[in-house]
Design goal:
Elements: E1 41-42, E2 48-49, E3 72-73, E4 78-80, E5 88-90, E6 103-106, E7 108-112, E8 115-120, E9 127-131, E10 138-145, E11 152-160, E12 165-171, E13 177-183, E14 194-197, E15 207-213, E16 217-222, E17 225-231, E18 236-237, E19 242-243, E20 250-258, H1 266-271, H2 281-286, E21 289-300, E22 314-317, E23 327-330, H3 383-386, H4 396-400, H5 417-438
Parallel strand pairs: 5-6
Antiparallel strand pairs: 1-2, 3-22, 4-21, 6-9, 7-8, 8-21, 9-20, 10-15, 10-21, 11-12, 11-20, 12-13, 13-14, 15-16, 16-17, 18-19, 22-23
The structure holds 2-acetamido-2-deoxy-beta-D-glucopyranose (NAG) (3 copies).
Signal peptide: 1-24
Keywords: Glycosidase, Hydrolase, Signal
InterPro entries: Beta-glucanase-like, ConA-like_dom_sf, Glycosyl_Hydrlase_16
C-alpha cells in the first residue's frame, strides 16, 4: 500500500478552505501542469504558492521553474533527543534556516515523559513532522512506540522533494508487524511493499527501526536485525529506462494520520484496519490517539564525491529528470526573507517574516494559506476535503488527557494555537483527501 505521503502525488485541486478564507483556492500543480509565475512553488500537497510552499516538499519538477523552490539544507549528522519542542516550528513560523529548527511540521506534537508524542485529537488529521535538513543516502534510526486502533496509521519515512520515498508504516490493528515500502518519484507500484514481523507489541514496547540507504541498496532493520533488503540492481524499469530506486535528498518525516477516516475510499479504510473510532480507544482515555517517538539518529552518507555528499550548504536540482546525477551540492543559501519570497526572489520582504503571510495576495502556507489572525478559532477548514468533521480544532486533549503537562507545549510559546492547528490540519487534510481518491 502506498504511504501517507505518496498519496499526495495525485494532483487534484481539492477544495478545502473554510468560509473564512479571503483567497481563492491555490492553483493545483502536477508534472504536466506547472505552477504559474505569481505562485511559482508546487508544495508537497500539489498546490501552488510562495513562502512556505517554496521550502521543504517543494517539487521543482512541478514548479514554475527549476529554481522556484528554495535550495534544501544538506545532511547533518545528528541525534535528535525528541525530549523538547524548542527546536520544532510550525510551518507557518519557519523560513528555511536549519540553524533555528531541527523539525518543522503541522498538527499537535507534545512532550510526555521526555519523548515526543504525535497526537491526533478527535476528527483531526493528525500530526506530521519533518527534519529541516535532507539526507542524500545514509542511515536513520528511531525509537518508536506506535499508535493503535482501527484506522490509525503511524509512519516513519524518508521523503524527497521529487517524491522518492522509503517507508516504515504501522497500521493500528496490526501491532505485531511493520509494513515497509519504497517509491521512485512517486510512481505507484504495489509490488514494492513488504512486511517485517516485530518481536513484541509495537504500541506497548519500544523498538528501534532503522533505514540504511546507499546508492546500491536499502535495508530496513528492526532492533538491529535486517528485516528486508532491496537492491538497486533489482529495480530497472525498461519502459522508462531508469532505476526505479530512491536516489535524491530526502527529509525524515514522522507522522500520525487517520487512514480510516469515514470519508476515505474503501481501499484506504480497509488497509488501515477499518473506520476510525473517534469516541473510543485512546480518545476516551487520553483525549487523542498518539504515537511516541524517542531518540532519532541521522548518520549522513558522507560520500567524498557525488552522489551522496554533504560538503556544502544546500542541494538543488539542475535538471528536471531529478535523478542522482542532477543533484548539486552547492553554496546557495536556503533562507527566505519573508513568506512572500520564493527561490528566485529569496530576499523579497513583504513584512511577513514573523506572521504567516498576513499581507500576501497569494498563498504562502501550504494547506490553505489563510492569513494569520483571520481564522476565528480552530477547526473551520480541516473537514473540507477530508469530510472528517469539524477539523483538527478540538483540544480535548487538554481537558481529559493524562498527559496534561503537554497542553502548553506545542509551539512552545503559548501563541495562537488555534490558528496553527487550523493551518496544519487543512494542509494535512489534503493528503488524507487525496488518499481516499487514489483508492477509488
Ligand atoms: C502485509 O500485511 C498486511 C496486513 O496483514 C497484508 O494485508 C499485506 O498483504 C502484507 N503484505 C505483504 C507484501 O505480504
Ligand atoms: C516504469 O515506468 C513507467 C513510466 O514512468 C511507469 O508508468 C511504470 O509503472 C513503471 N513500471 C513499473 C513496474 O514500475
Ligand atoms: C547515478 O546512478 C547511476 C545508476 O546507478 C550510476 O551509474 C551513476 O554513476 C550515478 N550517477 C552519479 C553522478 O553518481
Amino acid at each position: 500500500m502506498p504511504s501517507a505521503m505518496i498519496r499526495s502525488i495525485i494532483p487534484l485541486g481539492v477544495a478545502l478552505l473554510g468560509a473564512t478564507s479571503v483567497l481563492a483556492d491555490p492553483p493545483s500543480c502536477a508534472l504536466d501542469k506547472k505552477c504559474p509565475k505569481e505562485a511559482p512553488c508546487c508544495s508537497q500537497y500539489g498546490q501552488c504558492g510562495v513562502g512556505a510552499f517554496c521550502l521543504g516538499g517543494c517539487d521543482p519538477r512541478m514548479s514554475f521553474s527549476l529554481d522556484s523552490c528554495a535550495p534544501a539544507p544538506v545532511c547533518k549528522d545528528k541525534t535528535y533527543k525528541m525530549d523538547s519542542l524548542d527546536r520544532y516550528r510550525d510551518i507557518s513560523k519557519y523560513l528555511g534556516d536549519p540553524n533555528e529548527a531541527d523539525w518543522v511540521g503541522q498538527g499537535e506534537p507534545a512532550i510526555y515523559n521526555g519523548n515526543t508524542l504525535l497526537t491526533m485529537p478527535p476528527k483531526s488529521v493528525g500530526t506530521v513532522l519533518a527534519t529541516t535538513t535532507y539526507m542524500w543516502y545514509g542511515n536513520v534510526k528511531a525509537k518508536v512506540k506506535t499508535s493503535r486502533g482501527k484506522g490509525v496509521v503511524t509512519a516513519f519515512i524518508l521523503f524527497s522533494d521529487v517524491k522518492d520515498e522509503i517507508d516504515f508504516e504501522w497500521v493500528g490493528v496490526d501491532l505485531n508487524q511493520v509494513q515497509t515500502n519504497y517509491y521512485f518519484q512517486g510512481i505507484p507500484n504495489y509490488d514494492n511493499s513488504g512486511n517485517i514481523s516485530v518481536s513484541s507489541n509495537t504500541f506497548d514496547d519500544w523498538h528501534e527501526y532503522e533505514i540504511q540507504w546507499t546508492p546500491d541498496e536499502i535495508k530496513w532493520l528492526v532492533d538491529g536485525q535486517v528485516g528486508r533488503t532491496k537492491k538497486k540492481s533489482e529495480t530497472w524499469n525498461a519502459t522508462s529506462n531508469q532505476w526505479a530506486f530512491p536516489q535524491t535528498p530526502a527529509r525524515v518525516q514522522i507522522s500520525l494520520w487517520p487512514g480510516g477516516l469515514a470519508s476515505n475510499a474503501k481501499g484506504t479504510i480497509d488497509w488501515a484496519g477499518g473506520e476510525i473510532d473517534w469516541n473510543g480507544g485512546d480518545i476516551k482515555t487520553y483525549g487523542y490517539y498518539f504515537a511516541t517517538f524517542g531518540e532519532i539518529t541521522v548518520q549522513c552518507y558522507n560520500a567524498q564525491s557525488p552522489p551522496g555528499t554533504n560538503k556544502k550548504t544546500s542541494y538543488y536540482y539542475n535538471n528536471i529528470a531529478a535523478t542522482n546525477d542532477t543533484v548539486v551540492d552547492s553554496d546557495k543559501k536556503t533562507v527566505l526573507k519573508s513568506f512572500g519570497a520564493t527561490g528566485t526572489n529569496m530576499d523579497y520582504d513583504d513584512g511577513t517574516a514573523t506572521g504567516a503571510g498576513a499581507s500576501a495576495s497569494v498563498h504562502s502556507i501550504p494547506g490553505g494559506g489563510q492569513p494569520a489572525g483571520q481564522v476565528p478559532g480552530g477547526g473551520t477548514s480541516a473537514g473540507g476535503s477530508s469530510g472528517g468533521g469539524s477539523g483538527a480544532g478540538s483540544a480535548a486533549g487538554c481537558q481529559t488527557t493524562g498527559f496534561s503537562q503537554s497542553c502548553n507545549q506545542p509551539g512552545g510559546s503559548g501563541g495562537p494555537r488555534s490558528v496553527d492547528r487550523t493551518l496544519g490540519a487543512s494542509a494535512f487534510a489534503i493528503v488524507v483527501g487525496i488518499a481516499g481518491l487514489l483508492f477509488l
